[in-house]
Design a protein that fits this description.
Shape: globular
Number of helices: 5
CATH class: Mainly Alpha
CATH architecture: Orthogonal Bundle
Order of helices and strands: HHHHH
Largest sheet: none
Helix content: 40-55%
Distance between the termini: 34 Å
Strand content: under 5%
Length: about 140
């Protein structure tokens, strides 16, 4: 009997980790399955402008990545794996490549912590709406 229970847990984990597409949302809070709450629309709008100017060339204007940078809709960028602070640290300080073969990411010049707060609000709102893509990408 316990084997059936383990099998059910494995299936649920695979659906959450491998599944992509539209993120289920809590109708009361608007949160996605990863607890991404609805973001402040002003921060999202400002973050969109900053993202397009500073991130889109590598990560895509739609967050789906390019030939030189990964998708921010990858399941690897869910808040439980790469928290909001990880986005800020990567952009402000650069980061060594550890999930992808795109190479190391250099710091993005001219961004402040306030800019990153806005960019993260934009990214999280799009992730909340779009859901996540599987890793590795198929």
């Amino acid at each position: 009997m316990w084997i059936l229970g383990i099998g059910a847990v494995v299936v649920v984990v695979l659906i959450v980790v491998v599944g992509g597409g539209s993120a289920p949302q809590d109708p009361m809070t608007g949160s996605s399955e990863f607890g991404i709450a609805v973001q402040d629309p002003v921060l999202v709008a400002e973050g969109d402008v900053l993202y397009q100017a500073n991130c889109a060339a590598c990560h895509g204007s739609d967050l789906r990545g390019t030939g030189i940078g990964p998708s921010h809709l990858s399941i690897l960028y869910n808040p439980d794996h790469h928290g909001d602070g990880a986005f800020a640290l990567a952009a402000l300080n650069g980061v060594r490549s550890h999930h992808w073969d795109f190479g190391d990411m250099a710091p993005v010049p001219g961004l402040s912590q306030d800019d990153m707060d806005r960019i993260v609000a934009f990214v999280r709102e799009i992730q909340r709406i779009e859901g996540f893509e599987p890793y590795p990408p198929g």
